[in-house]
Write a structure and sequence with these properties.
This protein is 7% helix and 39% strand. It has three helices and 33 strands. The strands form eight sheets. Strands 2, 28, 29, 30, 31 and 32 form a six-stranded antiparallel β-sheet that branches. The protein has a five-stranded antiparallel β-sheet with strand order 1-5-4-3-33, with no helix packed on it. Strand 8 and strand 9 form a beta hairpin.
Length: 482
């Protein structure tokens, strides 16, 4: 916990740096041809959307066992941003939700998370609760916790609680139990009911936190872990006994901040790439660091311990990140890999499962921390800057036991986002249930919510709910059962 003096110094220095950044921002040049994350498939929606009843056309049959809401969060600037300094990760969050019950689509809502930007646009007062002057409309994920809904983001941003209809209730640090910022990716342990996360703050460069939430949605552990350079740690992974810390060479950049760019992180070759192995309840200084070849991981799939006591984790491994682009991801290769971590030898062995570019891995989260069979990923266009536009039309499903991959292609102009697995009630197999996700159709700028039978991954959808507007590609979402 920072002292009052440290807090004062950071505040004064921070204000000075932001003043300089605001001056320099005026000299930045907008990208030629338009900003890639403000045009085309990424062009923001110009307002909130509500659809009900016959406005939600359905083909196929919605499984009667699906009762709940599919929720997806992503950036959607509410006010026109400066295209010279805008970064994809900065737009105000807009949560998209579909409510389903009794084999019917009840409603679709697209709602801005109420921070400064959305409230100014809509002429509304700010909701109550603690918030930051910036980064106050979480845009990365949305989760259900103990019967409540929270929009979440990393880098020090605070959670925002949403009502069932996705209207904003309050900026809420989990009822005051969160001392620092949160993450975009907590992981639920199916055994203990706890959610584990690795959290960082943009204004703290010498440590991150292992943060644990109990089943009631309250933080019960925030343990600091010493680091250098202020690494950006987007996600983590857990086993029954460990949490993995991906301390990789994307770090806070004072140069980019002072230059006026909105997202102050970049590739840092001087930062040692490593994976930390921390016992779940242990102090932060007991972490075991294992060096790995330089790369960057936004998203792991699952992790587990093998018979030899080594930790296995599957990841989408970018060869670099934010090395040149100030607008968004700029890697040249993103294979799906299996990492074998030996804490005793402090080594990480990397094996390519599939060399094709891909991201957003999801699996049956009932298997979190245990050996598992299937991981579904979103195909990315090959080549430099493949995430600059969501340009591929395929999903991959990897059978990690058989060593094979199935491909589902949605057809020309139809671009899928992250798909989540929902198990059939009473079922146990990893293919007994459904994959749910959004597919943007750029031939007519509409969006389909697609329900795939997991047992027939490449077959016809079980059902499709047709939305008459384009939902910009966002980041993450979840199925929240009623």
């Amino acid at each position: 916990m920072a002292s009052a003096v440290e807090t004062t110094i950071r505040t004064v220095v921070g204000k000075g740096l932001m003043t300089l950044a605001n001056v320099n921002r005026r000299f930045l040049k907008a990208p030629v041809g338009g900003h890639p994350y403000l045009t085309g498939i990424h062009a923001p929606l110009q307002g909130e959307v509500t659809l009900t009843g016959t406005q939600l056309r359905v083909t196929g049959t919605i499984p009667a066992a699906l009762r709940g809401r599919y929720l997806r969060n992503g950036p959607n600037p509410a006010l026109p941003p400066n295209p010279a300094s805008y970064h994809w990760f900065l737009g105000a969050g807009m949560v998209h939700g579909l409510a389903i019950a009794d084999g019917a689509a009840l409603w679709y809502h697209g709602r801005w998370v109420r921070g400064r930007e959305a409230c100014e646009r809509l002429g509304e007062p700010l909701p109550p609760g603690p918030r930051l002057p910036r980064n106050d409309a979480p845009n990365t994920n949305v989760i259900g916790v103990a019967g409540r809904t929270f929009a979440i983001v990393e880098a020090g941003g605070f959670p925002v609680e949403l009502a069932h209809d996705l209207s904003t209730i309050a900026h809420n640090k989990f009822d005051g139990t969160l001392a620092n910022g949160y993450t975009a990716h907590p992981h639920l342990c199916p055994v203990t009911g706890e959610r584990h996360a690795i959290c960082y703050r943009a204004d703290v460069t010498d440590h991150v936190w292992h943060t644990v939430m109990d089943g009631a949605g309250h933080i019960v552990r925030e343990v600091p872990i010493a680091v250098r350079h202020g690494p950006s740690i987007h996600d983590c992974a857990i086993t029954p006994d460990h949490v993995l810390v991906f301390d990789l060479p994307v770090t806070f950049s004072m140069g980019r901040l002072v230059a006026g760019y909105g997202f102050p992180y970049e590739w840092n070759p001087a930062h040692q790439a490593r994976v930390g192995v921390l016992e779940r309840g242990a102090p932060g200084d007991s972490i075991i660091w294992c060096d790995v070849d330089p790369c960057y991981v936004f998203h792991p799939a699952n992790a587990f311990v093998d018979a030899e006591g080594r930790i296995i984790v599957d990841v989408c491994a970018h060869d670099r990140m934010f090395a040149a682009s100030t607008y968004g991801p700029d890697s040249q290769a993103v294979p799906f890999e299996r990492w074998t971590i030996d804490p005793a030898a402090r080594t990480v062995d990397r094996m390519v499962i599939d060399a094709r570019a891909q991201e957003f891995p999801r699996y049956d989260e009932r298997r979190t921390g245990q050996p598992y069979r299937y991981a579904v990923t979103v195909a990315l266009p090959q080549g430099e800057g493949q995430m600059m536009t969501i340009g591929d039309t395929r999903l991959y499903r990897h059978d990690l036991i058989a060593g094979t991959s199935a491909v589902r292609d949605f057809g020309p102009g139809r671009h899928p986002g992250e798909f989540v697995f929902v198990p059939r009630p009473g079922g146990d197999a990893e293919d007994d249930g459904w994959y749910l996700g959004l597919v943007v159709d750029m031939t007519d700028e509409t969006t389909d919510f697609v329900i795939l039978d997991a047992a027939d991954f490449t077959g016809p959808p079980a059902a499709t709910i047709h939305l008459p507007h384009r939902i910009p590609p966002g980041f993450h979402g979840n199925w929240v059962a009623d």
